[in-house]
Amino acid sequence: MEQGIQPKKLFFTSCLALIVTAMTFAIRAEIVTIWGADYQLTGKELGLIAGTAFWGFTLAQIFGGPLIDLIGMKRILTIAFIGHILGVIVTIFSASFWPLFLGTLLIGIANGAVEAACNPLVTTIYSNSKTKMLNRFHMWFPGGNVIGGLVAYFMVEELHLSWQLLMGLLLVPTLIYGIIFFSMKFPQTERVASGVSYKGMLKACVGPLFIFMVICMLLTASTELGTGQWINALLGQVGVPAILLLVFINGIMAIGRLFAGPVVHRLNPPGMLLLSAIIAALGLFWLSKADGYTTFAAAFVFAVGVCYFWPTMLGFVSEYIPQTGALGLNIMGGAGMLSVAIALPFMGAWYDQHKADALQQGAAQVAAELQAGRHTLQNVAVLPLILIVAFTFLFLAYRRKPRVVLSKEPLATELPQA
C-alpha cells in the first residue's frame, strides 16, 4: 500500500459525502411543492428545477470523468465541497424560478463531483469485491434519503419551520466531509495503477457491451430516481404522508444494499439486474393502484426492485469491462442522471395533463391529484418492462463469464461482514 493512504477512512468519508448528496434529494422532494405554492410555479417548472440537479450531476461527471486520472480525486472533491456550500446558500436566498434553478444546478454539480471521485475510489480500494463494496457505499444514498426525509418531515410537517432552515442544515455535514478530505492522501485509480493506457480506456468506452449498459442505465436511473423525486406529488393523496413513503422506500433500499454480498454471490450482477427489473415493474404497478397503508406494501416491493440498480450497474461495468476505468463509471453515472433530468419534466407534464383531464371530467381536486399520480406511475412502469427484456439477454450471455481482474491486490480488506 502506498505510504500515507488510509483506505478505510477514505471509504467512510466518501460515505459521508454521499449522505450529503442524498439529503439534498430528500429535502428537495419535501420542499419542491412548497416552492410551487409560494412562488406560483407550475408542475413543469418544478420539474425543470428538480431536473437541473440531474443536469448538474451529469455535467460534473462528463467533465470530471476524463479529469480524474489527470488532476486527481482530491481536486474533484474540492469542487464538490465548494458546489455544496454555494448551492445551499444560493437556494436559501432564492424567491423565484431562476435563483432556485441556479442553486439546484450548483448542488447538482457538487453531487456529481462526489460520485465522479468516490466511485473510482471505492473500486480502487476494494478491487477484488467491487459490486459488493459499491453496494455498501451506495447504501448511503438511500440512507441519506432516510436521514434527510425524516429531518424534513419533522422540521416542516411537525415543527412548521422554514424550508430555508432545513436547507441550511446541509452545511454541517458538508463542512465535516470537506475538512476530512482536505487532510488526506488519495491513491491512483485502479486503471492507472494497473497500467491500462488512456487510449485503451477510451477504446473500451465505445465497445458494444459498454454502450448497451449505458442505454440500460438511462432506464434504471429514471425508474428509481425519477419516481423518488416526484413521490410527494404522485402519492400525495393516497392517505399517508408521502415523505414518510420516501423514507420507507429508502430505508428498505439501504438495508438491501448493506446485505448485497450474499445476493451478489448467489445471483451475480446480471442475475441481480434481471430480478430487480421484474420486481421494480411489479412494485410500480402496485403503487399505481394502492391507497392507505397498503401503499407501504407496494412501496416495499418497489424498493426491493430498485435498490440494487445503480450500484450493480456500476459494479457490472467495473467487473466485466474494467478497462473503462474512472471514465466508464462516470459516463454511466452521467447517463443515469441525464436520463432523470429528461424524465422529470415529462413526469411533471404527464401529471399536469392527467390532473387537468380529471378536473375537466368533474373530479374533485383531491381525486384529480390521486388519479394523476396513478396514471403517471403507470407511464413510468413501462421502463422496467423494457429492462426485463434487456437484462434477460445480459443474464443469458454473462451468467457464467468470470469478471476481469486488473489489480490483484486491493488497498484494503473488506469491511466487517454484514
UniProtKB/TrEMBL annotation:
Keywords: Membrane, Transmembrane, Transmembrane helix, Transport. It is a multi-pass membrane protein. It is found in: Endomembrane system. Residues 10-402 form the Major facilitator superfamily (MFS) profile domain. Pfam families: MFS_1 (PF07690). SUPFAM superfamilies: MFS general substrate transporter (SSF103473). The chain crosses the membrane at residues 45-64, 76-98, 104-125, 137-156, 162-183, 204-222, 234-255, 267-287, 293-317, 329-351, 380-398. Its main location: membrane. InterPro entries: MFS (IPR011701), MFS_dom (IPR020846), MFS_trans_sf (IPR036259), MFS_Transporter (IPR051788). Belongs to the major facilitator superfamily. This is Major facilitator superfamily (MFS) profile domain-containing protein.
